[in-house]
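User: My advisor, Dr. K., asked me to get a structural model of this assembly before our group meeting. I'm new to this, so sorry if the format is off. These are the inputs:
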Amino acid sequence: MTDTRFDPQASSDWATAEPEAPQPALGGSQPLVPAASIAGRALVTVIAIMTFLAALTAGAAQLVAEASSGWRSSVAREVTIQIRPSPGRDIEADLAKAAALAKAAPGVADIRVYTKAESERLLEPWLGTGLNFDELPVPRVVILRLEAGNRPDFAALRKALTETVRGATLDDHRIWIDRLGVMANTLVVLGIGVTILVLAATGLAVVFATSGAMSGNREIVEVLHFVGASDDYIAREFQRHFLQLGLKGGLIGGICAIVFFLGAGALSSSFVATPGGSQIEALFGTVALGIGGFVAIGAIVAVVAGVTAVVSRVTVRRTLREIG
Amino acid sequence: MVRFENVGLRYGMGPEVLRDISFSIEPQSFQFLTGPSGAGKTTLLRLILLSLRPTRGLINLFGHDVAGIEKDTLTALRRRMGVVFQDFRLLEHLTTYENVALPLRVQGREEASYRAEVVELLRWVGLGERMHVLPPVLSGGEKQRAAIARALIAQPQLLLADEPTGNVDPSLARRLLRLFVELNKTGTAIVIATHDIALMEQFDAARRLVLGEGRLYVYD
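Assistant: The format is fine. Below is the predicted structure of the whole assembly, which you can bring to the meeting.
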């Protein structure tokens, strides 16, 4: 008020009562939308829980995908030749022929012929120990370890084996790999679906919270209009408020999920020496989230904040139109 | 600067609460808008502020016909007016300083650019020591002065005040009136809605716009 239009120092009933105090430190301006409110805290909690659940689902899907990839690659790295004993045939000679054929095939890195005792031991989990297997026609096994990235021509090898060694079969475990793949993919798709549902629920929660906040702050909106604030300005203030709430809730949920996975990883490492731990590790791999998992959780936090910002923007604009 | 021609207003399908209102407010003029309680003083102020739209008639504000006015124009027109609400309408989570600075802040100005003038105005209205205080702590008179300071800070061409002395003692009412008169001398047109006859008698030179039974009578 220092221009010529209006000089407050000219004469005033209050001016003399005011000492010339030094310019106070006024600090930054408060947000126009009250920052701390019960509705705001509830929204942060809801967003944190939603983000935690979404991150948990995405992390679990990531673990399954990694474990499945591990299973499939280890299963796919080996194929088995099985030779059934038949009367009048020298099974050791048949094994030697099969091993020679396999070793000559391109793409086979190494072979291992299981001894009779080793083959019999494979049956122990089903038949028990201490049995005399001499009377049983126990099949013999040759394990072929394959070179990485160079798969042999299984059809040709299978044909050569059946022509050369009677009773020999080649199992490339394709059926198991396919089943594992389908199962893992199903779980991953389910995980993505649940994550999307949780994000959608978060969006809806934000719609209700934004509408509620706009109704609760209707008087603020009206005053802002009267003092000359444009709709754009008011919308920006509300959006900033909700983006902050979204980021806060998202970060809390994301950090909780990361702590959960780190804790679960540490716990599974401490159990790995026990029989149960070994089984779990064999089935699911290590419960250690890779970089991809952490990136996914970070992306979920960003998406949650983004969803909050976009949804609140739309809701604020709609409410301003209604008020207008 | 403000021109009403045969303006009528009704809520829904009810009777007209304002009928055939015709008047104008000239630059640098001073007028009291008066009438009994419930006569429609606040409603008429809201029509000027464009927070209500007339059901008939023509309103022209600063040369703009308000029928079908664009949002941006509406915002620009409101920035040329200052308003003091009967119930103050200070934002309770903002300090006195932040409330008074609000009209400048919403124009997108940096705080450093207006800090000195806000502090100066606050001192002028006697709130220099209360600028860091939140409204719930202020007395009725202090709230009134904060609301007036907020209306003045952007140097409006037209100041609308709804019962600005309704919540203060007669002594403070006189001082507030002197403040409005002083502001008017600097070129701001003033409309004070009041039913306080004693207040009006202190400034006989002002025009009187009297509302009664939905009609407006102008006494120059």
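One thing worth pointing out at the meeting: The mean pLDDT of chain A is 79.

User: Perfect, thanks a lot.
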